[in-house]
Amino acid sequence: MAVEEAQGEKTPVHRVVPATFTPPPSSVDTVPSPAGKSSIVAIITSFHAGYFRISLSLCSQALLWKTLSSPSTDPHGLRPILRALPSFAFLLLWSLALLSLLLLSLLFVLRCLLRPQSLRGELSHPIGMNYFFAPFASSLLLLQSTPFIPANSALYRVLCCLLCFPILCLDVKIYGGWFTHGKNFLSLAANPTSQVSVIGNLVGARAAAEMGWREAGTCVFALGIAHYLVIFVTLYQRLVDGSVLPAMLRPAFFLLFAAPSMASLAWDSIAGDFDISCRMLFFLSLFLFTTLVSRPKLFKRPIRKFDIAWWAYSFPLTVLALAATEYTQKVKLWLPNVLMVVLTLISVTVTIMLLVFTAIRPNSMLPDNDLFQSPSTESRSSPSTLPL
Amino acid sequence: MENTEGSGPLRDGASSHELPPLFTYITSEGVAGFDTSSSPPGDCTVTQAAINSSNSTCINAGTPIISIPAAHSHNHAHSLSISLPSSPSALNGERIKGVVFSDKTEPKAREVCANNGEGTNASGLPPRKPAKFHSQPMHVGFESVSKFDQNLARKDRLKDNRYNSFKTWSGRLENQLSNLHGKSQDQAQISDLQDREAEILPAVHRYFDALEGPELETLKASEELVLPEDNKWPFLLRFPISSFGMCLGLSSQAMLWKTLSASPSLSFLRLSPVVNLVLWCAATALIALVAAIYSLKIIFFFEAVRREYYHPVRVNFFFAPWVACLFLAIGVPPRVSGDLHHAWWYVLMAPILCLELKIYGQWMSGGQRRLSKVANPSNHMSIVGNFVGALLGASLGIKEGPLFFFAVGLAHYVVLFVTLYQRLPTNETLPKESHPVFFLFIAVPSVACMSWAKITGTFDLGSRIAYFIAMFLYASLAVRINFFRGFRFSLAWWAYTFPMTGAAIATIRYTAEVSNALTKILSIALSTISTIAVSGLLISTVLHAFVFDDLFPNDIAIAITYKKPKSRKNKSLLNRTPSPDANDLEACASKDDAWIQR
User: Fold this and answer.
1) Which residues of B lie closer than 8 Å to A, measured between beta carbons?
2) What ipTM goes with this model?
3) What is the pTM of this model?
């Protein structure tokens, strides 16, 4: 196995790049784009699947607003306060989410056309491969939050199947690779972003269950949960410390509590009721959230520079707020209501802030060059400019 | 007056004739009211005469290096000499410290004596001998050295500056407290090289390097301690947190006897609830006592407590007091109180929650203390608290809180279970052979089974699965009982009895569901085993405490150096890095890489 040392950091981090990951040398095509040049071609060639974080956050935010504005079964709950959000704002958000999704998809397709070999490189990258689930998950979330199409219409079902199918194909490719790639693969390559693949499965499960297809939903749910268990244990073990995840990607730690929240939402749709397993998953996610926010030192370095990775903060918070909302439906106590309001406010604030920052400084979203080229040729690149 | 031992090892670069600057500063700046005190003139003359007789030669031997301002010596009727060792080493042998009441001539005499290292053999003192210090006005004759020694030995243990690095604020708290009582004082100690070394906390890999054994208690041959190995340390320093294991064992017994006397399927035994009452009161008293002693340790030896917290095995015992209190709350006799108030549950679970947030977070994201490195069977104690809390909460009727803790405990238990079963090569603490610590494996499934039954209200499938897992683990340990021999008794063994008790209680609960002869026999057998184990341990403890007098040996696990001692040859096969204080990340990564590339 080739072990490379990533420079540019004060503390040297051993980045283990298994030899099987490097694309064949003939496909190497380094097109150095000069730093700071923001031509259209440069933007397109430096695009990667990690940008779909934006669409993931916005679509989940739309789903949250839709859930909040739907009628609540708790007469004393605090939801009516949040219903004060005008429906116009919700439509605006939904349109923004749709727009972002379309734009990002377009950019991604263009990039694949311009640089076909980068696709393969990205699929082999331990961090990059997981974000391939993001566009499909965002579309499913958008579908669930759409105000026009009811859940049992034919169009809904067709779109759902169309979007779940790529998720299943990616499952076979990526999860199959965990078994077959050779020894120690998962223990080396597992990192917090691996949970995006699990989340993709769980979103698919929820969408299927909402449609009424409980068996299909259960099947995809089982797939997601089984692999979640493996990732959870592997991440907690952290066999090789800090080798795969650079410091700037630490916002991905927030995905730690996104997966159980999403699982609880999915099981809620499948079982029809926010039962004991859903509650246990929700509590686990709440605990992990508390653990992370009580360790501010972990996030001190990523906070310094605004980056595309910041968008990783928004989606988990939104999903946690969604799970809290469903929880208050079931348990009509005052504390969960307060929790729901607090989490919703946090998630909305964070999303709005991210939108503002992105609007003010769009250039900070662009990496310097496409780093999914062969890692051996780009040799000493600093981890902070790694994609994502 | 001679020093009881020879001059201790002089530290780098300091010779006895060079007085530390602090010493000169202190002697030159007197503080009114502190440096002086009124002492009966009788004392003064005795000591004065004694001093003069032995130091008469000193006074004439050369000029003092330090000039005391005349005003100082005249203004103070009696000046206390500061009891600083003349050589900077504070870790010498039995250095005599004391204060001398003297008059104005004394400072000069003292300085002169201190300067004897110049090699004034003519004065009759051996060259390079540190200055003499005299203790508090002792009217013992200076010729009876041994009696002097005895008295000093006891006093020294209290005022011995070698333990300062383990005391709270390096001993300054103790000084303040004894100042308040008007006792004789040691003023601010010079923190020399070795003191500073002792104050630095060892990193977690040092615990694995320097210690061995399933409880990381035994010092490896190549290692040294920062505290003297041949003396008996102060009692508080020797009192480990694993003493709370006793509370765990006893309070779980109280729980067992309550369940036994209240179980409907075992009512043919006709057990009286008095046993539960007696055990419960004994357990409460014991917890109060151990907690009081440990609080004293926190107040006076906070640094030692911190080192215990950073020990990979001992950190789990920090959950023990709260779990023991939870056992007490579950096993409370009906005569003492009916249903406990809900507030008790919140009060007891709050510290557990805080500890958990810290420790589980470290497993996930703390570089040095990640689980693959520090996982050991004692980690089960960090997890079982969740389930015990869930059991208590559900018995009190609380709905959501117990479920929260059950979920958190279950998730982390799965991780720990897998990690321990894997026996990763990076994990060095798992004992190769059997050891009583393995009984902790039984703890979580048994308690989880009972708490799930309480939460859901019935002994359903989930509880039965957990119960059968617990029984399987118990059986696989029981058939290896032959191997549980030849281990040194330690207080931590008490902590390993509560899983046996937990398994017995779970069996009794199971018997209530599935009531036939086999289950009844099993419940009686397991209860008997657990009671015998606890009684045996009790006898052992009493023996060690009163007959062998080694119940609290020197707690070497907390006194390791923060880096490998230079004098010993480094015999480790996997040389991590050139220097241990190089980047720890790199060290871990390079070692792990070596394993991966095998």
Assistant:
1) 357, 360-361, 363-365, 367, 370-372, 399-400, 403-404, 406-408, 410-412, 414-415, 418-419, 424, 426, 455-456, 583, 585-586, 588-590, 592-593, 596-597
2) 0.75
3) 0.70
